[in-house]
Design brief:
Blueprint: E1 9-12, H1 20-27, E2 32-35, H2 38-42, H3 45-50, E3 61-62, H4 71-83, E4 88-93, H5 95-107, E5 134-138, E6 150-154, E7 160-164, E8 172-175, H6 185-204, H7 210-232, H8 237-253, H9 260-271, H10 277-292, H11 296-300, H12 303-310, H13 319-330, H14 346-355, H15 368-378
Parallel strand pairs: 1-8, 2-3, 2-4, 4-5, 5-8
Antiparallel strand pairs: 6-7
Length: about 375
């Protein structure tokens, strides 16, 4: 038996943020807590959003989301949520703000610490319908967390874990590409490669979910065709719209399961929270595609060929070469060492990758030695 489940109501397109108040009304949210970060607030993007929230006041904002959201900030925001008599959350930002809001939605309405709601700790069965409703307003095009069924958060003990449940899926996603027009080129590139990694890893997974495969291939087509345009010209509205769609589609699809790219990037991001998740995915992606290429399910279903076709690659260009070339053109770091990663963290990263919730959905299950080899090559 295979579970195929799509839940989120999506408002998509330029100007869709104007629907915020009506969506709050439909959900019965009268006093939302806006979860964001200081960068989004300073850039004026939060103001673009809150102008559509009736009776908004500054005490409705939590803006301390770190680049890699953690348990300490979930606790702090959960206290503000409870003390402020809030009845829902509006997450405004990239995946960090949206994932933090998901953590708050659980922890403000359930007893105990965040760790007991991690998937790897059996948290799926502990998360109930009491979870506070979340409206997600993405300001980047990468994680797709606005339609994802979980949040990725760093626990107090340093583990980067997934808090996953149907109750964690945002009730509404308002995907307005207008909010991404000011995104810097480097962040556009890194978040865009995150979206592409989601589409490719989902499609490579051997789990059964044909709708996810179709969504992933179309998302890959859109992302690959528009990521350079969006990076080089942030005002390109067509490129911004298609990147936002690719991001949303990648996350709609990855309920099927991700793989070794994310096992490694989750683990390494937990070891060093300064590292950007999308950038790590960009570095690991060509190496994991190469690692997966010999898998029987990949060969039987001609998955490399089908991804290459979606990307519009010519017969003389290999998928792996195309990924490496795209990383170079986008200005991605040349490898992990360029990001300050050294071999002394490899044992911790491998141990974390083996425990990660994405490990078992890679089409070819990696051993510790194989993870270590990928890390070594990624340097």
């Amino acid at each position: 038996m295979h579970l195929i489940n799509y839940l989120t109501r999506v408002q998509f397109g330029f100007g869709s943020i104007a629907s915020l108040q009506s969506e709050c009304d439909l959900l019965g949210i009268k006093r939302p807590l806006f979860v964001t970060d200081k960068g989004v607030r300073a850039a004026g993007v939060l103001d673009q959003v809150t102008q559509y929230s009736a009776g908004f006041s500054d005490d409705q904002v939590f803006d301390e989301t770190p680049s890699n959201p953690n348990e300490a900030m979930v606790r702090k925001a959960a206290v503000q949520f409870s003390d402020g008599d809030f009845d829902g959350l509006v997450a405004v930002g990239g995946g960090s703000a949206i994932d933090l809001a998901k953590g708050v939605a659980v922890c403000a309405t359930h007893p105990g610490s965040l760790s007991q709601y991690a998937l790897i700790e059996g948290g799926l069965s502990r998360i109930t319908s009491a979870t506070a409703p979340v409206i997600a307003v993405p300001t980047t095009a990468g994680t797709g967390s606005e339609v994802g069924r979980g949040g990725v958060l760093i626990l107090d003990d340093g583990r980067k874990v997934g808090v996953i449940s149907p109750y964690v899926v945002p009730k509404v996603a308002i995907c307005d590409p207008e909010l991404t027009l000011g995104l810097p080129p480097s962040l556009t590139a890194a978040t865009g490669m995150d979206a592409i990694a989601h589409c490719m890893e989902t499609f490579m997974s051997s789990a059964f979910n044909p709708p996810a495969d179709g969504i992933a291939l179309d998302g890959l087509r859109r992302g690959w065709a528009h990521i350079e345009r969006a990076t080089l010209d942030g005002s390109d509205r067509e490129a911004r719209l298609n990147m936002m769609s690719a991001s949303m589609q990648g996350a709609m699809a990855f309920q099927k399961g991700l793989g070794a790219v994310h096992s490694l990037s989750h683990s390494l991001g937990g070891v060093d929270p300064r590292l950007h998740h999308g950038t790590l995915n960009a570095i690991f992606l060509p190496l994991v595609v190469e690692f997966n290429a010999s898998c029987e399910s990949m060969q039987q279903e001609q998955k490399l060929l089908r991804m290459a076709q979606a990307m519009g690659l010519g017969t003389g260009e290999t998928l792996i070469d195309a990924l490496n070339s795209m990383n170079e053109r986008l200005g991605m770091p040349s490898g992990l060492s360029a990001m300050g990663v050294t071999t002394d963290v490899f044992d911790r990263v491998v141990a974390g990758a083996m425990r990660d919730h994405c490990h078992n959905t890679n089409p070819r299950i990696a051993t510790p030695d194989q993870y270590r080899e990928i890390l070594q090559r990624a340097l």
